[in-house]
Every structure is written in structure tokens, then in C-alpha cells.
Amino acid sequence: MSAARQRFVAADVGGTNARIALVQSGDDGRPAVLAYRRYPCGDYPGLGAILADFVAGHAAGFGRADFERMAIASAGVVLDGEVINSNLPWRIVLGDLRRELALRELHVINDFAAAAYGSQQLAPADSRLLTPGVVQAAPGPALVIGPGTGLGAAVCLPQPRGLVVLPSEAGMAAFAPGTAREIEVLRWLQRRGRHVATEQLLSGPGLRNLYEALCALDGTPPQLHAPAAISDAARRGDALAREAVLGFCALLGSVIGDLAMVSSAQVVHVAGGIVPQLADFLPQSDFRSRLVDKGAMRAVLERVPVWLIENERLGVIGAASWYLQHLRERGGATP
């Protein structure tokens, strides 16, 4: 089996779930998923335990050597051999993983860098258009963004020999309010800390923060504490829950517009997270108007299509795509 056809493990590790797959390059050079499982992170003491369980459950059907190379997509950045991230329930120390799992090769890439790679591998049926009438994208950079446990974003630059992906920590950028109500929300949140990151509002926990802020501003004790409960209440007509959800959608549009301008993105892919649960609210909200409301850049942003990715394997496909490109760039050599 050639190096490019070697089987390996690709993983997508978020604050809530870890998605693990055994992957092999397909005949067309794209990653083919041979085995797949999703794990709730909170049910395991660490990533090593999750990966060990996956290997134990599938090694008999393949071979131990198929599990000795891993490409892991994770939120955060790697510093001194450890993933630095505030949304994971446990530490990820690369040396520990190599030792515990007897790995020959281990790579960790940013989760939204992986999403950017994966966005280029999906079928049309894997995405839903969020900008009716705006379908065709001009050639150029693609922005991938997604509110989940936190807010991730990356920019994808297509090149003749592959992709160049620029990961970011856009979720940690300061929240920029766009309405008088959002200014009040910002001031309320600043009681907890001077820096209010965008992901404190634009994420699953952020929807809860937004709802609690609106309740506090209106002098009403919050009755809801989970994002799903808030969205369900909004559908039943609860006024504050509905304001929180519509405000979340508007803020999503505003941030997408900001990042599209910064990156010169010609197309935007919204990667899963909480957005599929709120997709029915987007047309009712100021999502579209806030996205394009960028002064002289309105005419440019009105031509940028936005797609919602609805394939939960995006992260593992992206991590695998990165690894296969990595193999090609180093000439297919294996250690």
C-alpha cells in the first residue's frame, strides 16, 4: 500500500463531542471514511481514553498499524506540546497521546482550519443556501465560520497544488455591538470582565449569555438555561427567548460581514455548531441586513453567497484532507 493509501485516524475534537474516524485516501484522492464514531467528551477522562476506545473497538477489523498515525482537529492552538483552549473539558498533551497510544505520527491542526479543508470536499447536498438568490461565488478566498461551544473561523485560499488555510482565533476578538440594545448587553457583560469576546455571545453558551443579559436588562429572572430550551421557547412565542434568538442571528450576520471584509472572502461556509438548530429563525431576523450593512462595502457583500454546512463529519473529513495534502507535499514519505 502506497503512503498516500495508508490508513490513519482523523479526529475532530470540540468542547462537547469528539468525532473519530478511520480514513483512507479514495481512488480520487479524497478521504474515504472506513469507520466512524461520535463520543460525548464529558463522558471520558481525556482524549487519550476516547482514542483508545476507538482503536480497541476497530483494531480487530483492520490492523494495529492502521491506528499508528493520527491527524487531530481541535479548537485552540498548540503551545509547548499542549493544546491551549478554554472550551475543552480536559488537557490535551501531545507527548502523553504519543506514549499512551504508541503513535508513530501525530498532528494537531486548528478545528476551523480542518473545517476549511473539509468545506472543499463536500457534495452540494451537504450544504443549504442562506442567501437566496446569491449562489455563484467569484474566485477567491473562502471564509469558514461556526458558533459551537466557542466561535471558530478560518480562511481558505485555493492554490493550484492544494489549499492554503489560515486559522484564526476570531472568537476571542472584542464584541462590537451594532444596536443600542447590544450596547446595553455589552455593558451588562462587562460587569463580569472588561474584555467581552465575540464568542461570549456568538456560540452555544453565548446564546444563553445573551438571553440572561436581556432578562437582567428587563428585570426578569431567567427561566431557561440551555440553548435548545431557549430556541424552543422562542418558537412557542416567549418574548425574551425570541429576542435572544433573533439577536443571535443578527449578530451572526454582522460578524460574518466583518470577517468577509477582513479576509476578502468570496464565499462563506457556516460550519454546523448551533446554527442548524436556529436556521428557521434566520429569514425572520436581521441576519442578512446586518451582514451587508458595511457602508461602502455593501455592494460587494451583497454578492457573497453564504452556505450552511449540514454534514457532521466535516471536521474529520477536513483533518483527513489536511493530512493527505501533507503527505503529497512531503512526497508521500512515511517515518
From TrEMBL:
GO terms for molecular function: ATP binding; D-glucose binding; glucokinase activity. The keyword Kinase applies. Keywords: ATP-binding, Kinase, Nucleotide-binding, Transferase. It is an enzyme of class 2 (transferase). InterPro entries: ATPase_NBD, Bacterial_glucokinase, Glucokinase. Gene3D superfamilies: 3.30.420.40, 3.40.367.20. Belongs to the bacterial glucokinase family. GO terms for biological process: glycolytic process. This is Glucokinase. Its EC number is 2.7.1.2. The keyword Transit peptide does not apply. GO terms for cellular component: cytosol. PANTHER family: GLUCOKINASE. Pfam families: Glucokinase.
